Amino acid sequence: MGGWEGKVDIHRIFVLQPTRPQTFFGVGALARLDGILAGLAAAGRDKVLLVTDTVAYRASGAWDTVRPMLERHVAWEHFDGVRPNPTYANCEAAAALGRELGATAVLAIGGGSALDTAKTAAVLLVHPRKKASDFYEKGAPVTGALPLVAVNTSHGTGSEVGAFAVAQSDGEEKPAIRSPHLYPVQTIEDPALTVSLPVKLTVSTAMDALCHALEAATAVTASPYSITLAREAVRLVAAFLPTAIVQPGNLAARYWLMYASAIAGMSFDLGLLHVTHALEHAMSALNADIPHGEGLGILLPAVLREIYPAAPEVLADILAPIAPGLAGRPGEAETAVARVREWLAAIGQPATMGAYFTGVDVPALTRMAMKSSLAKMLLPLAPIRVDCGVVERIFQHSL
């Protein structure tokens, strides 16, 4: 049997099931929120903590539709203090507002940062004696969370279909937690909410989805299911991102990018992630100004150079829409990297991290990446052994 299928361990048992949230997907899906809020109220969950950043919930057009729904069905308080790469303090401030309200449910409108903040607040609200650091750093078990409804305004996060949350400590640490209680109970995926994304965010969120797919397909935890989802996600990003860049209002392009992001999120929820995300989290922990997806895109070629020889069959297969003509041989890593770089340049993805770091920063980035709890979780899942030398080489090649 040729291709990556021949390398699948048919004796390893994996979970073949969709991820948890009931997800309403398609243009106009936001209208379903009215029934969701009515259902929460009927179930006695009529006090809702709304979590957003300061911009996306309005710029996306969601707010004009959502506010009348909230006023019709529930009592609510609005936390709009979400920041990119949210901190423990952000999450605890959201939870404090929810506690004042006596919140019985949480509604998040936004991308990954809003969802991470809302997930953490939902956990804190049922663990009143705990701090965010107890879960993120001390291993406290997540034994429950308030029901979370997610309205996604991005086509990159994946958090709306997954069981992970990420937050940043007061220092340089940016760990993650994972629990079935972190799945939203219901998710709205309405592509119309993404048409206001500026070009830079259109590209960077698509890079996030792309890297979710590539990592989930090459992790040691990958399965035929996660690889199949990843392959389709990459195909759709390659097919529709160029259109979304030049025609931001093209709803069909936004539809397929959001769908690609959702299935890439499902892929990594089951197949998990590894090098690119572990290293980018070190970058954004040390410099919060770097957009998550942009950082991933900067690192991607250097990561591919390292991992391609260990997973050439699957990478040649799923990268075909971006880097056609690969045969799936270990020795073609440089060809694969060159073709991916050409594609990244064509869509306007920055090629280096020079706008954020210099060579002087590489030792600190390497130390941060190697010592972080997230790296300790993810790096063992890579298809290669990742040590300090590999990490330093990736950062050097990304300058």
SSE order and pairing:
Blueprint: E1 22-25, H1 33-42, E2 47-51, H2 56-59, H3 62-73, E3 75-79, H4 88-101, E4 105-110, H5 112-124, H6 132-136, E5 148-152, E6 164-166, E7 176-178, E8 186-189, H7 199-218, H8 224-246, H9 251-271, H10 275-286, H11 292-307, H12 312-318, H13 333-346, H14 362-371, H15 373-378, H16 388-397
Parallel strand pairs: 1-8, 2-3, 2-4, 4-5, 5-8
Antiparallel strand pairs: 6-7
Q: Could you characterize what this model shows?
A:
- The chain is an alpha/beta fold.
- It has two domains: 22-194, Rossmann fold, CATH 3.40.50; 197-397, Dehydroquinate synthase-like - alpha domain (Dehydroquinate synthase-like, alpha domain, Up-down Bundle).
- Helices cover 49% and strands 9% of the residues.
- It has 16 helices and eight strands.
- The protein has helices at residues 33-42, 56-59, 62-73, 88-101, 112-124, 132-136, 199-218, 224-246, 251-271, 275-286, 292-307, 312-318, 333-346, 362-371, 373-378, 388-397, and strands at 22-25, 47-51, 75-79, 105-110, 148-152, 164-166, 176-178, 186-189.
- It has a six-stranded parallel β-sheet with strand order 1-8-5-4-2-3, sandwiched between helices. Strands 6-7 form a two-stranded antiparallel ribbon.
- The protein is globular, with a radius of gyration of 20 Å.
- The model has no long low-confidence stretch (mean pLDDT 95).
